[in-house]
Amino acid sequence: MPSERVRAKLASFAPLYVLLATWLVAALTTPHFAELAWRDGRVVGASVDVCVRAVPVMLAALGLTLVIAGGGIDLSVGSVLALAAVGAARASEAGGSAAVAVGAAVGLGLLVGALNGALVVALGLAPIVATLASMIVVRGAAQLAAGGVVVPIDRSGLVEFLGARPAGLPASVLLVGLLFAAFVVAKRGFAFGLYIEASGDNPRAARLAGLPVGAVLFATYVLCGLASALAGLVVASEIRAADSASAGLYLELDAILAVVIGGTPLSGGRARLLATLVGALALQTLATAMLMHGLAPHVALLVKGLVVLVAAAIARPSWGRAIA
Amino acid sequence: MNPLELAGIEKRFPGVVALDGVDLDVRAGEIHALVGQNGAGKSTLAKILTGLERADAGTFSVDGRRVRPRSPAEALALGIGAIHQEVDLVPELSLAENLLLGREPLRWWGSDRRELASRARRALADLGVEVDVRRAAKDVPLGVQQQVCIARALSSDARILIYDEPTASLGSAEVERLFAQMRALRERGLAQVFVAHSLEQVFALADRITVLRDGKRVGTFVARESSPHAIVEAMLGAALGGAPERRASTAGHAWFEARGLARPGVLAPIDFALAPGEVLGVVGLVGSGRTELARALVAADPGVHGERLVDGAPVRVTSPRAAARVGLWLSPEDRKVDGLCLGLSVRENLALGVQRRARFARVSRAEQTELAERWIRALGIAATPEQRVGTLSGGNQQKVILARLLAAEPRLVVLDEPTRGVDVGAKAQLEARIAECAERGLSVLFISSELDEVVRRARRVLVLRDRRAEVLLVDADVAALRRAMAGGETAGTAPHTMVPPGGRDAE
Ligand SMILES: Nc1ncnc2c1ncn2[C@@H]1O[C@H](COP(=O)(O)OP(=O)(O)OP(=O)(O)O)[C@@H](O)[C@H]1O
Ligand SMILES: [Mg+2]
Q1: What kind of architecture, by CATH, is found in domain A27-36+55-319?
Q2: Distance CA A222, CA A121 (A)
Q3: Is the pLDDT of residue B498 over 70?
Q4: Which of A201, B172, B247, B289 could make a disulfide contact with B467, Cβ separation 3.0–4.6 Å?
Q5: With an 8 Å Cβ cutoff, are B344 and A197 in contact?
Q6: Confidence of residue B504 (pLDDT cuts 50, 70, 90)
Q7: Going by DSSP bridges, is the β-strand pair B460-465/B279-284 parallel, antiparallel, or unpaired?
């Protein structure tokens, strides 16, 4: 029945409806929210602001989408962000170039990702336990490396590097596009996507079908570490400092929410990368609008919780129907 | 007024009409068989009866009263109990707890264990089952678990029992016991609905037979006045071609050899060799080590000892992936747990088979779809390429696994109960497809509890008993296999003597 198919197709755009609805409500209730302008060779406006502010969550959530699609979870994304930021700051403090700082951050992210992957794949720990432990340990390591202070980044090429605005758009937003494109190519252009989804759906069957399930899941954690490290770079260059105590705090929660709003089932088996980005943008639209309204923080929390519930219910994968 | 009456039942799923105006009436003291091809709608009807699905249209009455159960619990309250193919006990709980789940005898400090155990024991004794009811469900054989399901239904005063392919994972002794019980329950006046593929079983048990085809009721037949032949014709809408004849095993060199294949504590060392195109049967009672042998061959579980020789050279096989690399593939016994990614589409599940050869380069979407369409046609799978495998009927899921295996262009496939839950027409189709591949040089390790099928396909049959190789029989008949399985006389070759395929047995 074509109508069924149309309905399924329409349902798969649920995250987009959530984003549009949030944006519309925000635009209607908030003065100047919908305005865009061209100033000094850059696009400015609340919507651009939303995009820029959503970058860390978008990056981490992209990585997390792969992990969750593989049937896992990574709670350490926020801590990895902090560690990578401190790493970049320390590297540029020591006189390293932008490339060295980026290398340090990315290296740390890959390392933590590999550790997470090893704990889950080789030791067989439950992903939530393994990454909860590394969330704590890595946050500790970041604070240790920072020596208990906020490490400033002053004379670094890093800030210019990420502060650049090619084509009038912030570089950090382009970074999201780049990572997204890379993941999509890995997912669609190679068998990686099918491997992740099969491993997440039924690892036993995937293994018997000759898939390298362990290697695939390991790779998802490594990529998630990489994505979180990139988020760390963005945060560090934005505030021109690395604050090991507060950077990336609760990032894992927002990232998970973005994935859920995007309709990737938490039980694994499907990766919806674009929808995750849309989910992250919806969250940030809400946050920015509430900020512009001057809503008290506790009210903002209530509103956010409610919107998330509604969005998750709409985006709920149709096959995850409630148990009869 | 019959205990169970359905009229004009309709059920639609996206893209399919699973049931289209089905009538069914079941009398007290009757065993009513429900038969039909894979995807005919039997399970869907069973699910509607037991509250797992709701009909889109039609009437459903119990003892003349219109009902509409919305959950298994509601169905049970109406007196309808379900015995599913996948036994649904809580594995960690004891048999007694499972039996009285939700109805535990209570004391103010919690449940009364002694009362619980004695009630459970009584309920099972009523069925003639003697078992320690304190044992966890996961520790007793499937047959016993099923008895607990029946006892559970009966102890909540069920007057109507629905069995969906209850014999699919039982050994023949367990099947006999189940049938004896069902006959006893018939004497007690229960109405029983029995979904099965084996017409032998249907005719051994049923009073009347309702045939479904493509979601429609073809007719209801009185078993005594009908014949398997007539039922098959009604199921298929045409006469069944003769089953393909057994082919002589190709004379040729053994290209594959297993030496001392073993898993300590699970499987004693086993040797065998296979020639290209040969089908080697493997039989044994439940628990004799058939599935363990299948899994050991592809290293599905860790700790497998022994050597595998491919073309005379030893190969290292430490994982199913490594096995696939040398052309060894397993079709596992439990299709839902080990076989399929139920959340993925038919196309994606099939792509897994060919993807390995393409390494990490992706098989393009167009190729995947083409592949899926080709195999859907070749095996007559009732599905579309994009349909989620979890929504396929049981028999069609089995076909998807087989298609994935064959699409991978293997050299040796291990088929562990490949025709379980597959209808008669499809069985012949699958057998023919396997024979076709064998002709092109595919070797097959064919594990089945349907001995006539084994005899038809395989000339050499390895008989397992107590987790070791008992004997290797050549050109044996069903009776000889049965004797050997039970540990009777052994007129075959001792299993450790290698019989050169196409050698002694080819005369
Ligand atoms: N949840 C669902 N979504 C979509 N289609 C479904 C769903 N459940 C069943 N179907 C379809 O309904 C039809 C009937 O399925 P059903 O499971 O009742 O067949 P069956 O007669 O039990 O077959 P088998 O002998 O293979 O077990 C099939 O075409 C199946 O694909
Ligand atoms: Mg069925």
Answers
A1: Orthogonal Bundle (1.10)
A2: 12
A3: no
A4: B289
A5: yes
A6: very low
A7: parallel
The per-residue pLDDT for range B8-51, each reduced to its tens digit, is: 999 998 878 999 999 999 999 999 999 999 889 999 999 999 99
Q: Whose CA is nearest to atom 2 of ligand 1?
A: B391
Question: What residues pair up with B35 in beta bridges, in sequence order?
Answer: B211
Whether the predicted pLDDT of A322 surpasses 50: no
Contact A47, A36 (CB under 8 A): yes
pLDDT band at B340; cut points 50, 70, 90? very high
Q: What is the interface pTM, i.e. ipTM, of the complex?
A: 0.87
Q: Is B81 exposed, middle or buried (0-12, 13-18, 19+ CB in 10 A)?
A: buried
Tell whether the torsion through CA atoms of A15, A20, A21 and A27 is positive or negative.
positive
B315 or B170: which carries more pLDDT confidence?
Answer: B315
Closest Cα partner for B192 from B82, B322, B290, B267?
B82
Residue whose Cα lies nearest atom 27 of ligand 1: it is B394
DSSP A74-107: -TTHHHHHHHHHHHHHHHHHTT--HHHHHHHHHH
Contacts of A209 in chain B (CB under 8 A): 320, 352-353, 404
Place of tokens 């981490």: A60
pLDDT over 90 at B245, yes or no? no
Burial grade of B1 (CB within 10 A; 0-12, 13-18, 19 or more)? exposed
pTM (two decimals): 0.84
Residue pair A105/A229 in contact (Cβ under 8 Å)? The answer is yes
User: Which pLDDT score is estimated for B111?
Assistant: 67
Q: Tokens 């001995």 map to which residue?
A: B451
pLDDT number for residue B99: 87
Can you tell me the distance from the alpha carbon of A297 to that of B181, in angstroms, rounded to the nearest whole number? 67
Alpha carbon of A273: minimum distance to chain B alpha carbons (Å): 17
Contact A206 B358 (CB under 8 A): no
Task: Determine the Cα–Cα distance for residues A224 and A61; give it in Å rounded to an integer.
Answer: 8
CA dihedral for A135, A137, A142, A143, sign (positive or negative): positive
E strand or H helix at B472: strand B468-474
Q: What is the mean pLDDT of residues A50-61?
A: 95
In short, whether B39's Cβ falls inside 6 Å of ligand 1 is yes
Alpha-carbon distance B395 to nearest alpha carbon in chain A (angstroms)? 18
Identify residue A269 by its one-letter amino acid code. G
* B189 in Cβ contact with B28 (< 8 Å): yes
Closest to B337 (Cβ–Cβ): which among A4, A5, A204?
A: A204
What's the CA-to-centroid distance between A205 and ligand 2, angstroms? 21
Contact flag B321-A191 (C-beta cutoff 8 Å): no
Q: Please determine, for residue B270, whether its predicted confidence score (pLDDT) is greater than 90.
A: yes
The per-residue pLDDT for B350 is 94
Q: Find out whether B131 and B143 touch, Cβ atoms under 8 Å.
A: no
Q: From the candidates B338, B362, B371, B412, which should be mutated to test the interface with A, based on the most A CB atoms within 10 A?
A: B362
Among all residues of chain B, which has the CA nearest to that of A198? B341
Q: Which of B191, B164, B205, B185 is nearest to B393 (CA)?
A: B164
Atom of ligand 1 nearest to the CA of B395: 26
